[in-house]
């Protein structure tokens, strides 16, 4: 399965350069990356709509006399779904009413840009955790430990943020570096174990996730970390000198998204242009061959996990220095696991991961409005995110549902399959 | 044949390392024994530690001076490690290792319990109850993975099982209907896993992780839409009754733990025996192992690889779904968002720590259940040892196991590799 994916990809890239536009038209209804991605999102939204309807007792009651008067049930369902998904859009991209108000002079520009700001705020940490998973994937490692690495990044970044006194600018830099190093340490452990003993990184990183979470829940109760003025388990507030500068309130978007774009560029360079990137891709495709060519597989694995862990740690630090500004047991949320989905959706390519993270941020931001306004639980967003990735990971399924033509490239083979 | 000679040569020339596995284990035991004897011994109060044979402080008890006990058991640990270092016969290795670890735990207990009491019956039954979902989850993993399908979705199967049990159990006001729908819930996730992994060849770890999120989302969504607004109508399932077997339940310690309990405990323990026997002695078991180790060879002799894998994954879904029922029908009496809280991953850890065997999984699950129960107990009596660190034990133990520091664990050879007929 894996072997046939790599070489044709390059060939296809060359073809693409020849006549991108005509190829685009030809491939519009074939099982290429873009079509499958869009159809996957569409399918997920359809299933989500079904869930919305079946969980609404009001609408369900209309379905009891569906055969005699179907319009009632259909209209009610349509209203419910369009309100929910309309809110999803308004909360994530822009609200036409707010934009109209801004143009008329009755509203502020902050209200018009609020949804985009929220989307980018949620996307920023996901970019880092997504890149962490993506780069590890390219080297043949499955880093499920993004969550744990992000938690440790939260801890080290946060502790430097409130415990160390440094001038403005330098403080933020040191806190971010601390986040990177914390995550790197948490990635180094499974990397070293993989390189030295062959312990499977999926198992070790899952276990390290839980160890990190338990450590965090212990740490925030300790004197010196815990906020002495509060009774609940919460740490001191991070000093303003260590917080990521943000746009004026109520907009929440902060420097983190800029850093995320920079990180994407760095990872893209590292993967595609640097000698290390070449080595890690070689190791990812065929470890024995890489070894024969004189590369140290063990060293590559260890270094790769250090970088992947560091990226996830940065994601945690961005989360805590950007929006959370305190450590709590839930400070990292679910960014590590979401990063996994983001990387899969972005097909383990740096810029694809960035786009996927923004899509997930948009779903999350829109989900908030959907919950408040349409009364549809935010959990629907989790379902949508999971479904999108299920369809992305099984392109054959999407292909069969929509009767797509076969893709010209073999790039859409099932995502790499390997054992423990 | 030429390769064999090369291997022979290297074996002759390579000097035998003094630090073989046995000596490394021995050294590790000596070190933790020293910690036990010196640190635990000096920290322990010189008061009586009572291990009562009941559910509370009353009744007969095994008593020992806490400080004396901590030092004594620590010394036994050192002695076991010393024997391994000295190089005893290989057949004693497992026994000495077990002795060293048990005495280390006893030393720790003497330190913690000094001046207090530890009710043994309560500890044992609590450990077993906490281990119950882990046993069932790990057994589900055994069924899947021995036939070559990695099952990371145990957590999702638990959640769907727990949700199904709560919803249908409430609507039908029948605990048995709840149990059946828990099975259905587990099988739904298992069927998705099987279909995507076997039919569409998607990476099994990816599917597992995504299915966990899917189950978390679906159950959380329906919980907020249905159960939260009207808990009485949708989320108040009946409890599984506790049955007492007269006679057997009067045996001290063992009786109340094993024979005055709910159906799931017996079911789990029976399943351990059944699956162990079936894997080793039946045609189905032989075929399962063949498919998990070398599917091509199995196919050659006419075994339907994919069909068998489908069946085993679905059977695993049944078992994991029952494990999910524990959360809503036994431990609490209502569903809650993400109520399994990582139990599925501890079950996965138990599966790996137990080396993919039913009895290994049982032992690992009991050990993890004991660690959790101990953590609860220690935080209740106000121990200086933070319970978070005790809760880390299953995870640390698993990392040590897969890193090969204590024995080597090996997954079925074809675990996670989809089979494509060529």
UniProtKB/TrEMBL annotation, chain A:
Main location: membrane
Membrane topology label: Multi-pass membrane protein
Bilayer-crossing regions: 34-54, 119-137, 149-166, 172-193, 202-221, 253-271, 301-321, 382-402
Localization per Swiss-Prot or TrEMBL: Cell membrane
This protein's UniProt keywords: Cell membrane, Membrane, Transmembrane, Transmembrane helix
Entry-linked InterPro entries: ABC_transp_permease (IPR001851)
PANTHER family registered for this protein in UniProt: ABC TRANSPORTER, PERMEASE PROTEIN, GUANOSINE ABC TRANSPORTER PERMEASE PROTEIN NUPP
Record protein name field: ABC transporter permease
Organism: Paractinoplanes deccanensis
Lineage, top ranks: Bacteria, Bacillati, Actinomycetota, Actinomycetes, Micromonosporales
């Amino acid at each position: 399965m894996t072997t046939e994916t790599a070489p044709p990809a390059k060939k296809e890239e060359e073809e693409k350069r020849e006549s991108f536009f005509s190829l685009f038209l030809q491939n519009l209804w074939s099982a290429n990356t873009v079509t499958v991605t869009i159809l996957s999102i569409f399918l997920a939204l359809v299933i989500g709509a079904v869930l919305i309807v079946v969980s609404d007792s009001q609408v369900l009651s209309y379905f009891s006399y569906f055969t005699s008067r179907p319009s009632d049930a259909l209209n009610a369902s349509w209203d419910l779904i369009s309100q929910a998904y309309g809110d999803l859009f308004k909360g994530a991209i822009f609200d036409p009413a707010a934009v109209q108000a801004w143009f008329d002079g009755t509203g502020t520009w902050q209200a018009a840009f609020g949804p985009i700001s929220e989307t980018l705020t949620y996307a920023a940490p996901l970019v880092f955790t997504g890149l962490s998973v993506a780069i590890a994937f390219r080297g043949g490692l499955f880093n499920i430990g993004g969550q744990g690495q992000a938690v440790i990044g939260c801890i080290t970044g946060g502790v430097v943020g409130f415990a160390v006194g440094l001038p403005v600018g330098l403080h933020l830099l040191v806190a971010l570096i601390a986040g990177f190093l914390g995550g790197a340490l948490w990635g180094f452990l499974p990397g070293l174990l993989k390189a030295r003993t062959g312990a499977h990184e999926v198992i070790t990183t899952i276990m390290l996730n839980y160890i990190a979470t338990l450590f965090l829940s212990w740490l925030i109760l300790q004197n010196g970390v815990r906020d002495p003025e509060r009774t609940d388990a919460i740490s001191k507030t991070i000093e303003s000198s260590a917080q990521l500068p943000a746009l004026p309130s109520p907009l929440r978007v902060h420097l983190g998204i800029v850093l995320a774009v920079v990180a994407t560029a760095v990872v893209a360079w590292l993967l595609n242009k640097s000698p290390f990137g070449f080595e890690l891709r070689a190791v990812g495709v065929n470890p024995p061959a890489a070894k024969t060519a004189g590369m140290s597989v063990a060293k590559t694995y260890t270094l790769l996990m250090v970088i992947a862990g560091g990226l996830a740690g940065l994601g945690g630090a961005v989360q805590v220095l950007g929006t959370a500004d305190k450590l709590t047991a839930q400070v990292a949320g679910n960014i590590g696991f979401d990063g996994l989905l983001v990387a899969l959706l972005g097909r383990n390519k740096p810029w694809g991961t960035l786009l996927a993270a923004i899509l997930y941020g948009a779903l999350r931001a829109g989900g908030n409005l959907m919950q408040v306004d349409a009364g549809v639980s935010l959990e629907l967003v989790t379902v949508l995110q999971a479904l999108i990735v299920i369809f992305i990971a099984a392109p054959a399924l999407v292909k069969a549902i929509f009767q797509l033509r076969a893709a010209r490239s073999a790039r859409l083979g099932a995502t790499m399959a390997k054992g423990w | 044949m030429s390769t064999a000679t090369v291997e022979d040569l290297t074996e002759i020339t390579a000097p035998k390392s003094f630090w073989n596995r046995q000596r490394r284990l021995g050294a590790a035991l000596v070190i933790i024994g020293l910690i036990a004897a010196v640190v635990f011994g000096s920290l322990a109060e010189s008061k009586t530690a009572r291990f009562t044979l009941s559910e509370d402080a009353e009744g007969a008890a095994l008593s020992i001076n806490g400080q004396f006990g901590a030092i004594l058991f620590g010394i036994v640990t050192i002695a076991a490690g010393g024997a391994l270092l000295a190089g005893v016969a290989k057949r004693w290795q497992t026994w000495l290792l077990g002795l060293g670890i048990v005495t280390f735990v006893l030393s720790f207990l003497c330190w913690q319990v000094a001046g207090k009491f530890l009710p043994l019956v309560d500890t044992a039954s609590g450990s077993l109850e906490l281990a119950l979902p882990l046993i069932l989850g790990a057994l589900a993993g055994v069924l899947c993975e021995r036939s070559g399908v990695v099952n990371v979705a145990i957590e999702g199967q638990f959640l769907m099982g727990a949700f199904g049990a709560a919803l249908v159990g409430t609507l039908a006001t029948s605990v048995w209907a709840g149990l059946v729908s828990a099975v259905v819930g587990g099988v739904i996730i298992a069927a998705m896993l099987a279909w995507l992994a076997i039919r569409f060849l998607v990476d099994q770890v990816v599917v597992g992780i995504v299915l966990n999120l899917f189950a978390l989302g679906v159950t959380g969504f329906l919980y907020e839409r249905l159960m939260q607004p009207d808990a009485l109508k949708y989320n108040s399932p009946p409890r599984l009754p506790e049955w007492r077997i007269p006679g057997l339940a009067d045996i001290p310690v063992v009786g109340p733990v094993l024979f005055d309990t709910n159906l799931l405990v017996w079911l789990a323990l029976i399943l351990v025996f059944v699956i162990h026997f079936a894997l080793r002695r039946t045609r189905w078991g032989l075929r399962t192992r063949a498919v998990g180790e070398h599917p091509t060879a199995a196919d050659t002799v006419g075994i339907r690889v994919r069909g068998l894998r489908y069946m085993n994954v679905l059977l695993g879904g049944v078992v994991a779904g029952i494990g999910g029922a524990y959360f809503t029908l036994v431990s609490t009496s209502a569903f809650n968002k993400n109520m399994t809280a990582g139990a599925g991953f501890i079950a996965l850890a138990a599966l790996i720590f137990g080396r993919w065997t039913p009895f290994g999984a049982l032992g690992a699950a009991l050990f993890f259940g004991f660690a959790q129960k101990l953590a609860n107990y220690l935080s209740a009596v106000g121990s200086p040892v933070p319970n978070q660190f005790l809760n880390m034990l299953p995870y640390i133990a698993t990392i040590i196991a897969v890193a090969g520091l204590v024995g080597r664990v090996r997954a079925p050879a074809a675990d996670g590799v989809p089979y494509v007929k060529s």
